[in-house]
Specification:
6-stranded antiparallel sheet, Rossmann fold, alpha/beta, 14 strands, 8-stranded mixed sheet, Pdz3 Domain, 406 residues, 20% strand
Length: 406
């Protein structure tokens, strides 16, 4: 999620001030399955009860979800298995309730027309990604999400853009909700106040931001910057909740669709984010479903974490973790621009700076962020990757030195 001046991490490119929340909060589901000992049956649904997770037959769980007005499917954005699970769950729900709408966190409202044309079959895949500003607003490999988009197109299921532009959340981060004129808020209404538990979670994230940690003074929950951070996060939650609620309110009777939200788990867990805003909008018929790793313990999988979780089996042999450069990239009119460099990252140690334009990687010119990401992730450990950047009118040659295998 987005908040606080500057980027919180480099997982997404929706808003520089929210990225670390996405990585941190969505990781709750991941960490919940790595505590002590396994309590989840792989490849199975589990409802969360006072005594712990209880295996629940898939048909029973899916029948329950299909009766809700809104079903929220969580994810860690860069986990391929999470998206495979979402596709499987969408297909099962669609079989039970063909009247469906799918909302995506990955698109801002301004590209709704492009989503409509995609579902109607009027755009090629490359046209769809270009017109939806995929590389600018989401900045993750499109292949992670394309099966979901294809599912919607093949079945003529309306797709809904749930998000707002990053400029809005940046402004709220800097000025707070009341400091941004109403005409700049994209029609988003004032968010319901965050619960104290949600504020506590957000404060832990806020404290981890490098710029906050570098500050010698002790931060508090009354700091204006932190209060603006909360405003930014709740605005993001509210925007997605309103977009989902609008599709529920727009139909009735037998034409009333099931609205499914494809959203980061950090917006859903413990009912703090989007579910809280939906309830404030008068919608309580909600199901929250989250994928988790089957291996490990279940400390955080307490009642209220989600309505149910699906335990993803581990791969027979885990692939080595792909290298990460530690930057957020966006394609602008000037080229592939670095808009954030994470402290302590490979990019920082290489000398890369915010505002650099990446011209080439390994001697090959690049014009797409996917090309840069693919080059970095395919680089073997212990090797060097030459990159050329343009900075303030000068061309610089940089060498990214990947650490040897651990």
């Amino acid at each position: 999620m987005r908040g606080m001046t500057g980027a919180l991490s480099v997982v997404l490119a929706h808003c520089a001030v929210a990225l670390s929340f996405a990585a941190f909060a969505q990781n709750d589901a991941h960490q919940a399955s790595r505590d002590t000992s396994s309590c989840l049956a792989p490849g199975a649904w589990h409802t969360l009860e006072r005594g712990g997770p209880r295996p629940t037959p898939g048909p029973e769980l899916l029948a329950f979800a299909s009766r809700r007005d809104i079903v929220l499917l969580g994810e860690r954005h860069d986990e391929r298995d999470h998206h495979a699970w979402q596709l499987q769950t969408l297909a099962a729900l669609h079989a039970l309730r063909p009247q469906m709408v799918i909302g995506f966190e990955s698109f801002p409202r301004r590209v709704q027309g492009t989503l409509d044309k995609w579902v109607a079959g009027e755009l090629t895949e490359s046209e769809f990604l270009e017109r939806s500003d995929w590389e600018k607003v989401w900045n993750l490999p499109s292949g992670l999400y394309m099966p979901l988009f294809q599912f919607a197109r093949i079945n003529r299921i309306p797709m809904v853009a749930l998000n707002v532009d990053r400029e809005l959340t940046q402004q709220i981060t800097q000025k707070g909700w009341d400091g941004v004129p109403a005409e700049r808020k994209e029609g988003v209404s004032r968010p319901a106040p965050a619960s104290q538990a949600y504020r506590d979670v957000l404060f832990e994230i806020y404290k981890e931001h490098p710029r906050v940690k570098e500050n010698s003074r002790e931060v508090s929950k009354t700091d204006p910057d932190f209060l603006h951070f909360i405003d930014s996060q709740t605005t993001w939650d509210r925007a997605m909740a309103e977009a989902l609620a609008h599709r529920v309110a727009g139909a009735s009777g037998t034409a009333r669709p099931m609205v499914v939200g494809i959203v980061g788990a950090g917006h859903l867990s413990n009912g703090y984010g989007v579910p809280h805003q939906l309830r404030d909008l008068g919608i309580s018929s909600i199901a929250t479903l989250v994928p988790v790793d089957a291996a490990g313990g279940c400390k955080k999988l307490a009642t209220g974490f989600a309505d149910a979780v699906f335990a993803l089996p581990a791969m027979a042999q885990e692939a080595p973790r792909k290298p990460r450069l530690g930057v957020s990239l966006q394609r602008t009119g000037k080229g592939i621009e670095v808009f954030e460099v994470v402290g302590g990252s490979l990019a920082e140690s290489t000398g890369m700076r915010k505002g650099d334009l990446i011209v080439s990687v390994a001697g090959s010119a690049v014009t797409q962020t996917d090309s840069v990401i693919a080059a970095v992730r395919s680089q073997p450990a212990g090797t060097w990757l030459p990159m050329t950047v343009r900075r303030e009118g000068k061309t610089l040659d940089l060498i990214v030195k990947f650490p040897p295998p651990s």
